Amino acid sequence: MDYIIMAKELLSLYPIVEPEIQFIRHNENMTFKVTDKLSNKNYLLRIHKPAIEGFFGLQHTLEGLKAEIEILKKLGCEELLHVQLPVENRFGEYITQYKFDNYDDPCYATVLEWIDGKILTSKEEITEEIAFKLGQNLALFHKCLEELAPSDNFVRPIYNIDNIDIAIEELKYCVEAELFSIERYNIIRDVLISVKNQMNELKLRNNAFGVIHADIQLGNIVISNDNPCIIDLGFCGFGYYLFDLGSAATIFPSNLRQNFLQGYASKAYFSLEDLRYIEGQIFMDIFMSYALFMRDNQRNSWIKTQAIKTCDTLCRDFLEGKEVFYSM
Predict the structure, then answer these.
(1) What CATH architecture does domain 123-327 belong to?
(2) How far apart are CA 278 and CA 282, in angstroms?
(3) Spatial contact of 238 and 163, defined as CB atoms under 8 Å apart
(4) Predicted model pTM
(5) What Gene3D superfamilies does its record include (predicted)?
């Protein structure tokens, strides 16, 4: 079925009178920009059907989507951040279940408010001001959700030691698929074991673990009126706040990472002594990405190239106790 036809069918269930639909992409979800020509308001339509089965996760289930809606509403009611608030359908519900002719199972769809602005697509577009402000906004994101009182059936992904064990086992496939050698796999395994030890230390801390975004990357930052807004909570779940600091830091050139950390520290607790832990969380993020894409033969070639640099320089230095934060 044509993507636009699917979108039109779903939008008939929403109070959007004259929708103009623009297909964006089909990755972990099908996404569309929708403009109501009558009100001139913009929306984001998401059909929660991943492009490949390997992308399917809790975030695509009814329970997972209900939890994401809770998170968005909590962020919105705090009024500290510009977020994509959910939009109700004609039945007063935030999640729409719909059966398309070309799919055996029903799909879930959600509509969010659109944030007008420019999506960050290159590190060269980032200034000191944006880096500092994004640090502040990430801290506010974490602090707002500290007070979230989730419902009894609140279900989101959890990023903890179990993910490390799963990754160590699953990444053996990369050797079979010749994405990297057994020698590099052994280096990755040693790094992940070190990260497990770090996470055991972090477990002893208060206020180190909570709801995190878990997917801060260039394409998930929209600059709206000079304010870097964090979008796309598809992978949002429970994890260490330092995981978000790690993934966010890597979108900046090394000379701006200090600005980002200073911005975060201006709104929430942070110590430069935690850089070693942040490095570990960055490695965790990298290798979980390998596991996510490794079976997608259309999109896994980057793993070969990145694994060479990551294993032969960054991992070795990390295992030797050298600082790698500004090189990652």
Answers:
(1) Alpha-Beta Complex (3.90)
(2) 6
(3) no
(4) 0.93
(5) 3.90.1200.10
